[in-house]
Amino acid sequence: MEKLVERFIRYAKINTQSDENSLTCPSTLGQKVLGNMLVEEMKEIGLQDISMDENGYIMATLPSNSTITVPVIGFLAHLDTSPDYTAEGVSPQLVLHTGADILLNKKENIYLSAKEFPDLQNYIGQTLITTDGTTLLGADDKSGIAEIITAMEYLITHPEIKHGPVRIAFTPDEEIGRGADKFDVAKFGADFAYTLDGGPLGELEYENFNAAKAKIIVQGLNVHPGTAKNQMKNSLQIAMELNSMLPVDEVPERTENYEGFFHLTAMAGTVETTTMSYIIRDHNLNLFNQKKELMVKIADSLNLKYGLHTATLSMVDQYYNMKEKIAPKFHIIELARNAMVKCGVETKIIPIRGGTDGARLSYMGLPCPNLFAGGHNFHSRFEFVPVKSMEKAVEVIVKIVEMNSAN
After folding, report:
1. Which are the contacts of 268, defined by CB distance < 8 A and separation ≥ 6?
2. What is the CATH number of the domain that holds 314?
């Protein structure tokens, strides 16, 4: 397991932050830097059919060592880290958690506080990998990558564990919603798969949000404020009015579990023009569609009030709830749950308040629920991952492969 920690720390130090404004695939060069490292590492441990295409998609095979035919199973993780917080100069730290607040950065006086993050109390006495308080960590999803590769190496060095063929893949740009864009399901060739892209120990997820993104350009009219009466049309004021017309409690900071939301992710403008970006989320397809309809009605009402083309709305669906595709193949959930039980892991089947590559892949013909990778506080400088949780993720991967062959 020392290799597991060493791998993760080595991967975390490579800046693979994705960029939604980039038109390339992958969106950033760092993802290919990590990809090339992984290709060489997989060759060294003995995986086969290793490839990285021009778009940064990596695939490899652990061949069967069994005489019986079993379904081909797959495991996936993503190369990129979130564009929401810097990944330049990531400096992971190994910390034994005693129960006290954890000093991340003495110079900046930055602490990981148990008061702010009560989940820390679940890991007293354990070794955590943390940031230095100035960057994200990248456990989303480099912990998943390290766990998959470590599990494959374990299976290679323990041939007494009989298994069928296993396919693994690492994808670019998941954090900006493009991870499945150029994924070749037929080439991957798995009957079903799991993403290692979940959070704390024991999470097993096969429901996720239906998701859309919306961009609204509010066009105003700027004139001198001294003569503005009945002439000026302040796009900033109209933008704030638009936001106030959305349900006040349907925002991320006031919702949980299956509750959906509207999330204003960016807003910039002047009196003349303001641009607003939203993401729209709901597990329930009918409620999801109602949210999108409300956004259209609000834009229409502002155009009626202030004039045609005041609010120009563009909206596109991003992904859908994979439950519809997973439910008919529920045996793959039972397989993962039974493997967790065998590994002494308490299973927490919960809905994802987000999305994964697996959501889109499930609609592309590859049923793909999500397993825990162990991390907490993703996309922030307070991100951490317990080493024991990562070790358990490796055990669960190995057990799933073993039990798939036994079935």
Report:
1. 274, 275
2. 3.30.70.360
